Structure formats: C-alpha cells, structure tokens
Here is the input.
Amino acid sequence: MEIPKFLIERYQFWKKNTFEDYKNIYHQASKTAQKPIAMIITCCDSRILENTIFGGGVGDYFIHRNIANIVPSKNDKEQNVQTLSAIEYALKVLKIPNLIILGHSNCGGVEYSYKTLIDKKNVNNFEYINKWVSCLNNSYNKIPYNLPESEKLTFLEQENIKQSIRNLHEYEFINKLINENKLNVIGLWYKINSGLIKFLDNNSFIDLD
Ligand SMILES: [Zn+2]
Here is the structure.
C-alpha cells in the first residue's frame, strides 16, 4: 500500500496550520461527547462542501452521504438500513434537533436514474447502483410530461428532496419527533455553479439569499 503524495502533503499542511490554530478546540472536543447542531444528509458528490458552505466547526454537523442524498422509504427494506442507522443514531442518541436534506444541481446519481428510466439502453452493468437509484422511481413519475427538457433534471433533484422528507415521516420515531416539535426537517437544494441555495417552503423551493 502506498500513501499518495497529495494525501501526505495536505495532511501535513493541515496539521501544521489549521490544527495548530484550533488545537484547543480539538482538545476540548475530545473531552466531551459530541453535540452537533444539525445532521446533514447530502450526496457523495465531491463538489458539495457542506462544512464550508455552512461554516462548520469541530462537532457542528453530523454528516451522512450517499449517492443522490436519498432517504429510502420504510418499505425499501433492502435499501434503508445504512441511511436509517445514521439517522437513528443522530436522533435517538445525539438528539440532534435539525435534520437537513441537502440536494444539489448536476447530480450524477439523479441524472443516471433519469437516463435509465427514459431508456433501458442507458442501464449500465452496475452491481449496486442500479438498485439504489431505483429509490428515485417515484420521483421520476412525478415529472410533468410538458416540462421543458432542460428543467427535468432540476425537477427530479428537487422532487427527490421532497420525497425523502415524505419518507422520513413513514418512520414512527422520526414522525413522532417532528409532531412533538423536537425535530426540524429542512430541505435544501444547492446550485453548484452559482452557490445559490434554495429551501423547501411548503411545496416550493425559494432562494435562501
Ligand atoms: Zn449528487
């Protein structure tokens, strides 16, 4: 096993600079249990820097990433264990009061799902991804047929966030926390090229600027 040079150099830079500047905060964080202010469920996409966007410090955000930031339905028993175990820990153990679903533009997972659903010829021989993106089938079925082609992927990305929030309500322990006002669920969509974030207000996405 060879450790890539970029990893060593970047680590050493961080250790000598950033860590050095914040070492008291890191030291303090190791002495107490974590108490994050929000859980963020977002996409594995390398362009989503959630801690940078929301000014995250040590211990602020409890992060879960998966392809296309999906919270699977309770009925998707083969798909939901990983994401739901992260949510269960966040809510039952850490008692985090805010749960953010952060979707984004140019999402490769959403685009792949879309392409495979419009034409089966686009289905690749993936051992796992095909099954995972099938979680988006319901959202795909909600795309209005008369929507301009250029807007369909954005619609699907945003509908996926709405569906994930609806799916959260299917889990009794989550639904109970929401109904008791102990959990605030927030839907966000991030546009990579402009940095714009839209938030879900009732059933529409509104600029957060
Ligand atoms: Zn994505």
Q: What stands out?
A: The beta strands are 38-43, 61-66, 98-104, 184-190, 197-201, 204-207.
